Amino acid sequence: MIQKPKGTYDVYGMKGKTINYIEDVLKTLMDKYNYEYFRTPVFESSELFHRGVGATTDIVTKETYDFVDRGDRNMTLRPEGTAGVVRSYIENKMYGSSPVPVKAWYFGPMFRYERPQSGRFREFYQFGVEVFGCDNPAIDAEVISIPVNIYKMLGLKGIKVNINSLGDEESRNNYREALIKHFEPYIDTLCEDCKERFRKNPLRILDCKVDADKECMKNAPKTIDYLNEASKKHFERVKECLDSLGIEYVVNPNVVRGLDYYTHTVFEVEADIKDFGSQNVLCGGGRYNGLVEMVGGPQTSGVGFALGLERLLNALEAEHIELPVRTSVDLYVMPISEDEEAYAMGITQALRLSGFNVEMDVMQRKMSNNFKQADRLNASYVMIIGDEETKTNVMTIKNNKTKEEYKVEVADLVDFFDEMLDEDECTCEDEENCKCHHHED
Ligand code: HAM
Hints:
This protein is of the alpha+beta class. The protein folds into 2 domains: about 15-170 and about 230-320, Bira Bifunctional Protein, Domain 2 (BirA Bifunctional Protein, domain 2, 2-Layer Sandwich); about 330-440, Anticodon-binding domain (Rossmann fold, 3-Layer(aba) Sandwich). It is built from 16 helices and 16 strands. It has helices spanning about 15-30, 45-55, 60, 80-90, 95, 135-155, 170-185, 190-200, 215-220, 230-245, 290-295, 310-320, 340-355, 365-375, 385-390, 415-425; strands spanning about 35, 45, 65-70, 75, 100-110, 125-130, 160-165, 250, 265-270, 280-285, 300-310, 330-335, 360, 380-385, 395-400, 405-410. Strands 1-5-6-11-10-9-7-8 form an 8-stranded mixed sheet, with helices on both faces. A hairpin with a 5-residue loop joins strand 15 and strand 16 (about 405-410). The protein starts with 12 loop residues before the first helix and ends in an 18-residue tail after the last helix.
């Protein structure tokens, strides 16, 4: 049997419904924040990620899916969304024509050749935002507020927001020198990768999983102690805005992020849930004021974040949160024999297009099995269509719970269901987020 590739997964059943629900929440929220939907290719030229994500990051050195296409071009399946959106911003000259700031959101599959485990896949979905052309620290706080509000809207409680600052170029350079000075005496004790990182990009030593427990890692200098005045001021203002938004956070100097492009604010939201597992970073992001220029555009500041869908699903499961997805149908239509099938299809389509959730028996079940199927589908009403119904155009309808029976003319069906379904009590627990016919707009 052919199996799915390692580190990937299929979506169906309740998981599909849950993901659809989450996507709706994301879209609605982005509309409220007035961000624009972006979709960029799943593969890009490899050079984009070398320049954009950073040639010395683990993602680029160890984790990309690279291939040479039939035209001999070096291509890479995107490991993250930021580089592609930055390329699109530059290529479509949004710096020239669009009103600033340009605020983008995206949702799609990303690919990293990592060792799969719970919450870590080789194909995974990210939802993210990127904002271009705004230096104001207020927008850093706005970006941090987005995942916090998403988690809140989905009912997730155990989250912890960690923030830090890497500062501007001058601060980062000072920090880099401090790191070199600090690690120099220990260089022989570090792993081979770290020796290479020491030469090329000492900040990346801090991401090392092999050397993580060594003393020299634990007492390495902290970025926050190397911020110049302007960088300190920026960070203070971010915190002030977060306070005003009512967002609780912890300043955590260990958050340095595994991608090269960050300046100033960086943040991660982690799951603060008992026994959640090691992949507990639900989302991460920050400011990247040099990236647009690095990819070939004019100097433009940027800030954004991305959250992993799979880790969000894990967190919802860990907190036993069931999203209010629809698990019933308004009506189940039962043609008694093949002779009534085509007629029943017409009525089913008309009611679906009028806004009802309708399922019709296409398995030509016996009546008794059809009633069992109606119960399985959690149908509110059933409609039985036999010879008499097709001749008179008067339908026989039963309330599937009370078993009360009604005779309704075809022309009156929409009004009938509008009224009857409205009278039913909503049994949803979370009325505010409910998607059933009582609460749908
Ligand atoms: P990142 O921290 O590499 O940042 O990824 C963001 C999120 O994607 C992670 O917090 C995690 O939830 C999810 N994620 C990453 N790798 C995997 C994986 N192998 N399996 C499942 N989930 C995963 C970025 O990608 C940046 N582009 C974020 C950003 C946007 N910064 C500025 N703008």
